[in-house]
Design goal:
Its main location: membrane. By secondary structure, the chain is α+β, with helices and mostly antiparallel strands. It is built from 16 helices and 38 strands.
Length: about 900
């Protein structure tokens, strides 16, 4: 800097490193041995006087805006400052230093003329991070830590940034059980860029910190084992422990558990456990990694456990965690249980809609019951739940939206607590407006007709829940994003209801193609439009790719296996025929062709005249019309469906059924089917609650009754089956039960599915023969079975198709060559499901299953307990474009034979587009 005042120029240098300090120094006379940032005693500059700032310069910055920095300093041209000794400079230094962007902040006085002063703010910026990398961890972990910490190239390297990284790393690995994780930050100057540095984050995860032991003291009324069971997130390390029933064995003995372990510990674990049994038990599948957040939650659960048992004053007076020699943790807790309380008198105040006895009955708590505040609040409905059955639900289902309830303790007599339940019912709310938002593709009337909340009617909480279910079951919207927001208008006693939806793709495409040389073109082309609009079919501007938005379903499918097989399917469904009532109308047409001899000429050319070229085929032509109606009784979950169906079967040199004389001919199947169904499942793809039932009866015309003197069994088979007659009954039942209460609509929880199915087909009388069509075929996955034969395919995981009801007959080792199918079947299913992703664009869930099923030739052979059994695991993937995909690995227990293993009894099955029966 130019030397302006050789004898008296003063500079105020405030140099900040770990805080800041003020120094006054004369730049031209600074001793050569004096470090630049070390304090120097000020020169004699005279008495303090006031100056006006004539100019301020900011120097030393490379990235930051100078005008912004000048504004942050609080110093402006024209301001009055006192020099020397004024605190304006100190405040300016503090303000700039607090930004944590600078390694050094200095203010110089460069010139003084009269009452004018010229200043220069000298800044040394913190270096910028030109690049960074992680060491000691996987790439997936480093990517996640980069995102969580928010670091990026170009960031200013500050102590705050380093502290953020350290905190993020510690929390990230602590949540995974690595409570001793550390990170070292190495900083290296980047010579390729000005004032830049490269950072290396060296992570040492260390070993997982596990909970070694949990000890309790003063818990006289609840045993350790019960408290530990409540601590879902904090488990003791797996080890051998004494069986409770054998603890007495060691009480009066010099032999200790440690002696046992020393004696048998050298054995292999399985041998050791075997040897120690029945004195010990082994805790298996116990995750003992320590997580601070889960530990805090578990302490709350312990208090909740005591409160639920009447100990409302229970507290944890002391809890200590300390490290063991193995660097794991021991936990010690001391609990003050307090006394046990009971409910006393419960009185009601403010109720007019329901009398005291009715409210007491809904509450379900009697005098003398163990005190449980959580149960009381649940029965009062302080925390809303979809299950209902509480006081608040009873009122809100009758329009009392403004209802308020407050339990008040009015007396404690020893161990008895009296309550007064105070209520303010308010007026019954009337629905004023119903608004819908988010439906970009689906027409509003499609959603509105599903709603149970109608303007002008009384508000009902149950109607809100039902409306949400109906919107979800449309399949057009993300079920996790359906929002319902009642907006009360207290002034006029009305309520507006806002529904929000999020469209999801649900049209499906099935496409495969190939060329088989001799057999020709093979493949499948299928499209399903689940939100079709027939009325806009002639409006070109609505095609994208087809007109949509009216909730109709259009499906077209063509499949071919060259010369051997081809099929055509078309169906259309209108769920609200006429637009005013839920009358579902459907029509479908289908045609299929199979030639079992298509390859004979091909094999003849390869192997010589070993086969005979035969012209034969099996053709099916069918059509169906159905009309479904929603019922009001017993409740509006019921529906009644009528359908009229026709199938024509043409056989030419086709003897698959094994019925002599039935290789050629035409059979006609005209039947009427009536179905009573009830469904209350909450959503179609991954149901978490509800049930569905279906009972159907299917009848052909009783042709034989028109001519009671004729014995049709003596007619040629082709004549017997010219007009098929039978009566057929089906029953299906499914239940879905969540095994834990989800805390939100998108929460994941285990779901138990239980199902039972039954089917029976028979003749009207003994003067007719039951045809092979319409029967039941069991085993397989529903895809490999020949559904072309008009069979009800009842899949069973772990088994191929089987034709005998004897479980001892292994279908892998040969079975009776009778393909006539079964006339009776029953099936039981139990599945435990868990969702890995509830995203509507890719819903994924896994399952474990137990299955038992069997088919029977006639009702005399029927035995509902003579079953083929299987178990296994599976996965389901729902992709909107392709529908439901699934894989199962099942083991058929009745396929296991002496000398064979589970591998020989295992079978992979695959499903596409539908859940097999």
């Amino acid at each position: 800097m130019k030397k302006l005042f050789p004898k008296g120029l003063l500079a105020i240098a405030l140099c900040c490193t770990a805080g800041y300090r003020v120094s006054a120094q004369q730049k031209d006379t600074l001793p050569p041995t004096q470090p630049a940032n070390q304090s120097v005693y000020p020169l004699n500059v005279g008495e303090p006087r006031q100056y006006e700032i004539a100019d301020i310069q900011v120097v030393g910055t490379q990235y930051l805006d100078k005008s912004l920095l000048l504004s942050l300093s609080g110093l402006n041209v024209g301001d009055k400052v006192t020099y020397p000794g004024g605190d304006q400079f100190t405040k300016a230094i503090q303000s700039l230093w607090s930004q944590r962007l600078f390694a050094d902040v200095t203010i110089y006085v460069t010139k003084i003329e009269g009452d004018k002063i010229w200043l220069e703010i000298g800044l040394t910026e913190m270096p910028r991070m030109s690049s960074f990398n992680w060491k000691g961890i996987k790439k997936s972990e480093s990517d996640e830590l980069t995102t969580k910490s928010g670091i990026r190239k170009g960031s200013v390297i500050t102590d705050a940034l380093k502290q953020t990284v350290r905190g993020t790393v510690h929390k990230y690995y602590a949540d995974k059980g690595f409570g001793n994780a550390t990170v070292r930050i190495d900083q290296r100057v980047d010579s390729g860029q000005v004032n830049s540095a490269h950072l290396t984050f060296v992570v040492n995860k260390g070993n997982k910190v596990r909970t070694e032991n949990i000890y309790f003291a003063d818990n006289y009324n609840i045993p350790d084992s019960r408290i530990k069971k409540k601590m879902k997130g904090t488990k003791e390390r797996s080890r051998l422990t004494l069986h409770p029933d054998t603890e007495h064995y060691f009480k009066d003995s010099v032999v200790t558990p440690d002696d046992f372990w020393k004696t048998y510990g050298y054995l292999q674990p399985s041998r050791a456990v075997e040897k120690l049994d029945p004195y010990f038990r082994f805790k298996l599948f116990s995750s003992s990694k320590f997580n601070e957040n889960k530990y805090l939650e578990d302490k709350g659960k312990i208090i909740a456990l005591y409160n639920a048992r009447g100990y409302r004053d229970a507290v944890i007076t002391k809890d200590t965690t300390y490290k063991t020699p193995s660097q794991n943790l021991n936990i010690e807790m001391r609990i003050a249980e307090g006394r046990k309380y009971y409910f006393g008198d419960i009185t009601w105040k403010g109720n007019t809609r329901y009398n005291d006895s009715a409210l007491t009955r809904i509450l379900g708590i009697k005098k003398g019951d163990i005190y449980n505040l959580e149960l009381l609040e649940k029965r009062l409905g302080k925390q809303m739940s979809q299950e209902g059955g509480d006081i608040t639900s009873a009122y809100m289902d009758n329009g009392y939206l403004f209802f308020q309830i407050d339990p008040v303790e009015i007396g404690i007599r020893g161990d008895t607590i009296d309550y007064e339940i105070r209520m303010r019912e308010g007026p019954q709310a009337t629905i004023k407006e119903v608004r819908i938002a988010g439906n970009e593709k689906t027409n509003e009337h499609v959603i509105r007709r599903e709603l149970r909340t109608i303007p002008g009617e009384k508000f009902s909480r149950q109607d809100l829940i039902r409306s949400q279910r109906e919107i979800s079951n449309l399949g057009f919207f993300n079920p996790e994003k359906i929002g319902i927001n009642p907006v009360p208008n207290v002034s006029d006693g009305t309520v507006d209801i806002d529904y929000t939806v999020e469209e999801k793709a649900n049209d499906q495409l099935e496409l495969s193609a190939g060329w088989g040389g001799y057999i020709g073109l093979t493949g499948t082309l299928g499209v399903t439009f689940n939100n079709f609009s027939l009325r806009n079919i002639f409006k070109k501007e609505t095609w994208d790719p087809l007109p949509s938005g009216d909730g109709q379903k259009l499906s077209v499918r063509v499949s071919s296996n060259g010369k051997a097989y081809r099929s055509y399917n078309f169906s259309f469904t209108e769920p609200w025929l006429g637009g005013k009532k839920r009358n579902q109308f459907s029509v479908s047409f289908y045609s299929s062709y199979q030639n079992p001899y298509a390859y004979n000429d091909y094999y003849k050319g390869l192997y010589g005249d070993t086969t005979t070229s035969t012209d034969g085929h099996f053709k099916v032509l069918g059509a169906s019309v159905s009309l479904g109606k929603q019922l009001k009784w017993p409740d509006d979950y019921f529906s009644l469906i009528y359908s009229l169906n026709y199938q024509q079967y043409k056989l030419k040199n086709y003897n698959y059924f094994g019925i002599q004389g039935f290789e050629n001919g035409i059979s006609n199947n005209v039947n009427f089917k009536i179905t009573l169904a009830r469904s209350s499942v909450d959503q179609p793809i991954f149901p978490r609650s509800g049930s569905s039932f279906m009972l159907s009866a299917q009848y052909t015309p009783p042709y034989s009754l028109f001519n009671p003197d004729k014995d049709y069994t003596k007619e040629p088979v082709s004549q017997q089956f010219k007009f098929i007659e039978y009566q057929k009954y089906r029953f299906n039942a499914e239940w879905y039960v969540p095994l834990s209460k989800p805390m939100g609509s998108d929460a994941k929880t285990f779901v138990l599915k239980v199902a039972a199915k039954f089917g029976y087909i028979s003749r009207y009388n003994n003067r007719t023969t039951l045809s092979p069509f319409g029967r039941f075929e069991l085993g397989g996955d529903g895809l490999s079975n020949f559904a072309i034969y008009d069979r009800d395919i009842i899949s069973q995981r772990g088994y191929p198709v089987y034709y005998t009801s004897d479980p001892s007959v292994n279908p892998d080792n040969g079975q009776p060559a009778n393909y006539g199918g079964f006339t009776v079947f029953n099936k039981y299913v139990m599945e435990l499901r868990y969702p890995f992703s509830l995203n509507p664009s890719s819903t994924i869930f896994g399952l474990a299953f137990l299955e038992a099923a069997n088919g029977y030739k006639d009702i005399q052979e029927y035995n509902p307990f003579r079953l083929r059994r299987s178990a296994g695991i599976g996965m389901r993937f729902y992709l909107p474009m392709f529908g439901l995909l699934g894989f199962d690995y099942g083991i058929g227990f009745d396929r296991i034979r002496p000398g064979g293993g589970l591998k020989d009894a295992a079978k992979f099955t695959f499903m596409l587009g539908f859940e097999p029966e």
